[in-house]
Design brief:
It is a single chain. With about 300 residues, this protein is an alpha/beta fold. About 40% of the residues lie in helices and about 15% in strands. It contains 13 helices and ten strands. It has a five-stranded mixed beta sheet with strand order 3-2-1-4-8, sandwiched between helices. The chain has a three-stranded mixed beta sheet with strand order 5-10-9. Strands 6-7 form a two-stranded antiparallel ribbon. Strand 1, helix 5 and strand 2 form a beta-alpha-beta unit.
């Protein structure tokens, strides 16, 4: 291993047990010097492969607390080739919003959205000069369980199809298409995003959804089964997908270090929930696992311990 990479990797593995999370003030101070912040906090500044450079991914990130967890999530999914839209809950403290904006100001492909979370980010991401291929939405308690290169390979295999939970539900329909149930997590193509932003039928449906209870539990799932929507599945019951079949999110509980060996063998792109105040070791191990795999192209599960001794 290269000495610099060893130092970054070892720092992740041997940092002391956390007694408290880093504060907003820490980030407001650190981001006064963006080049130093990017270097010292370990953000990737170069493309790791041509395949990743040629297949940009867009992210919509919704957060409301724990600024350090946001930074760790962003760093774990960050490459200079992708584009990131961040939505901060308007009820969050002003200093939290300031810290998020400060972090985003140091990264040219990260921007903060101020209105509706996913929908507004979709509109803004379509305006981005980055010609991203797929959009993933995520939140502050998520963490990736795949490297960016692995995500690119998986998304290419979708070949324009979307992936999200979508199952039959009995309900009153405000539209001609039947309603389906699901969750807030999705993996959708650029064509899907472009279509739902431009379609009057879908915009009317979304407007109706605003007056329903927990619209995320059926809105995306229903759009995924509308025949006119790019990348969707037919409404037939045989095309249903559970959250475990879809690749968007592995969501079970708050994960600990003991869950990681099982987690990294799942086919999902991200997992929820991680909480540094419950088990920081779990997040630290995932950070080190992903960074090693991204740089060296092989899993730590197959590496001899002697290979990482300084």
């Amino acid at each position: 291993m290269d000495r610099v990479d060893k130092d970054i990797f070892w720092k992740l593995m041997t940092s002391k047990k956390k007694t408290s999370l880093l504060s907003e003030s820490f980030y407001l101070n650190e981001t006064k010097d963006c080049p130093s912040y990017i270097r010292d906090r370990g953000f990737l500044t170069l493309s790791l492969s041509k395949e990743e450079r040629d297949f940009p991914i867009a992210y919509s990130i919704v957060i409301h607390e724990k600024i350090e967890m946001f930074e760790r999530l962003l760093r774990a999914i960050y490459t200079p080739d992708n584009v990131y839209c961040v939505h901060v809950d308007q009820r969050s403290p002003e200093i939290f919003k300031e810290a998020v904006r400060a972090i985003a100001s140091c990264l040219t492909n990260v921007f903060v959205s101020r209105v509706q979370a996913d929908i507004n980010c979709m509109q803004d991401l379509l305006k981005s000069p980055v010609q991203w291929r797929y959009l993933l939405n995520t939140c502050g308690t998520d963490f990736p369980i795949k490297t960016n290169a692995e995500m690119v390979q998986i998304l290419k295999q979708l070949n324009g199809k979307n992936s999200m939970e979508s199952e039959t539900v009995e309900s009153k329909n405000p539209i001609q298409s039947p309603m389906f149930s699901g969750n807030a997590y999705f993996v959708v193509s650029r064509e899907f995003v472009d279509h739902i932003i431009k379609s009057k039928e879908i915009q009317d449906f979304m407007e109706w959804e605003k007056d329903t209870y927990s619209p995320d539990e059926h809105m995306w799932a229903t759009l995924q089964r509308m025949p006119s929507v790019p990348g969707s599945n037919p409404p037939n019951r045989k095309y249903e997908q559970s959250d475990m079949n879809a690749i968007a999110r592995l969501a079970v509980c708050i994960y600990g270090a003991g869950d990681l060996k099982w987690i990294v063998r799942q086919h999902h792109l991200l997992a929820n929930k991680f909480d540094p105040e419950v088990d920081d070791v779990a997040i630290k191990c995932m950070e080190a696992f992903l960074r090693y795999k991204a740089i060296y192209g092989r899993s730590l599960l197959t590496v001899n311990k002697s290979d990482i001794i300084l």
